[in-house]
Design a protein that fits this description.
alpha+beta; Beta-lactamase; eleven-stranded antiparallel sheet; three-stranded antiparallel sheet; 12 helices; globular
Length: 400
């Protein structure tokens, strides 16, 4: 759910190095020496764990890179399933994907629009009249983070409840209740997980069905995502054994510092961040999302319509001068090295998962680590840059 930054603000108030590689050198679909690329990518994540393992209290880093067409992907993992030791982490582990969930929620709503069931320009009052203070806010403003509705995850009452029990069972209405009565923020971009709990509630109101069922029928089954589930509602209990231990490493709650988190206890995240997935299924979804397999053209354009995260105003694309934009549950960024990409780093209480799609090359990079910290994602950005540089050096990726 919650981006790593949102989790941070919500709760403020090294390992052995082993590696596995699923792709053989001969299968790497790019110019140059495939074995050299595998070695370089493995070194990228090994170096990250060596330099950031203690600082971030992580024991595992996993990476998946996929290419367009029928070319096989690359899967690598370094470290162990527990901090300080344990079994080697594998490339088939499951990870809570955090706010990468938001794209799934947005797509379900856009599919419902394409089905004629709603419009993303509908006001909230049409579907959720129990929130009169927000009645004129449109679904689109929920999805692009311009509603001004407060983030429940930063409210002191929520923080206190969650810190007292990480396995607390929340309902969607209870999560929203923490934001009720908080004055609307100024017009513009403002990240709020409440927006996506409300979006989830609209899906359920329109379909007379659960979010879990709609996710399964509309996305999981059609894409054959066999290792993706909605925690804890559709995740088998055995999935917990397929996950590295995740660690709470936020200094604002000293009693929890360095403690393992319950892996499937995500009712506090729901439609804002409750999905668990393998990196294989996550990259399958990501390619379907950006290649237009999930939505008709009109809804795809709406998905990718951006507001500047700096000004809150609509922009056609991000640039070096205005490098961060938010669409409908998705983010775009532009850097000198990598050019323009669709990217997201999502965090839960014990995990962070990053996902990037590069339109020019068709490459997807997904990476995961097993802690949540009260730092920003700058270090994970450095990891992405290092991986991309290795792909550039091998001739697989383009310079910005």
């Amino acid at each position: 759910m919650l981006s790593a930054a949102a989790v941070t603000s919500a709760l403020l108030g090294a390992a052995g190095l082993t590696a596995s590689g699923a792709a053989s050198a001969a299968s790497i679909p790019q110019p140059g020496n495939g074995a050299a690329l595998l070695t370089s990518l493995r070194n990228d994540i090994r170096q990250y764990l060596a330099t950031r393992g203690t600082a971030e209290h992580i024991s595992a880093v996993s990476l998946r890179v996929t290419f367009p067409g029928r070319a096989p992907g690359i899967d690598l993992a370094v470290g162990t399933n527990q901090y300080g030791g344990g079994s080697p982490v594998s490339t088939s582990e499951l990870w809570p994907i955090g706010s990468n969930t938001k794209a799934f929620t947005a797509v379900i709503l856009l599919q419902l629009e394409a089905d004629g069931k709603l419009s993303i320009n509908d006001p909230l009052g049409k579907w959720l009249p129990q929130y009169p203070a927000w009645r004129s806010i449109t679904i689109k403003r929920l999805l692009n983070m311009t509603s001004g509705i407060a983030d429940y995850a930063t409210q002191p009452a929520f923080v206190t409840t969650l810190a007292a029990g990480l396995s607390t069972d929340f309902s969607a209405a209870q999560l929203v209740s923490y934001a009720v009565g908080v004055p609307l923020g100024p017009t513009g971009y403002s990240y709020s997980d409440t927006n996506y709990i409300l979006a989830q509630m609209i899906i359920e109101r329109v379909t007379h069905d659960s979010y879990a069922d709609q996710l399964t029928k509309r996305i999981i089954i059609p894409l054959r995502l066999r290792s993706l589930c909605y925690a804890p509602y559709t995740c088998p209990a055995a999935d917990a054994a397929r996950m590295p231990t995740g660690y709470f490493f936020m200094s604002g709650v000293p009693s929890l510092l360095g403690q393992p988190v319950p892996p499937l206890a995500l009712t506090w995240a729901q439609g804002a961040g409750g999905i668990v997935s393998s990196l294989t299924d996550l990259t399958t979804w990501n390619r379907a999302l950006y290649q237009g397999w999930e939505l008709p053209p009109r809804q795809q354009r709406q998905l990718e319509s951006l507001v500047s995260e700096a000004t809150g105003q609509p922009i056609p694309t991000t640039t070096l001068a205005d490098p961060a934009g938010y669409g409908l549950g998705i983010q775009q960024g532009t850097t000198q090295q990598r050019g323009t990409e669709w990217e997201y780093i999502g965090g839960t209480l014990g995990y962070r998962v990053g996902l990037a799609y590069f339109p020019r090359s068709g490459i997807i990079i997904a990476f995961a680590v097993n802690s949540a910290t009260d730092q920003d994602n700058e270090a994970l950005g450095v990891l992405e840059a290092s991986v991309y540089q290795s792909l550039q050096n091998a001739g697989a990726a383009q310079a910005g």
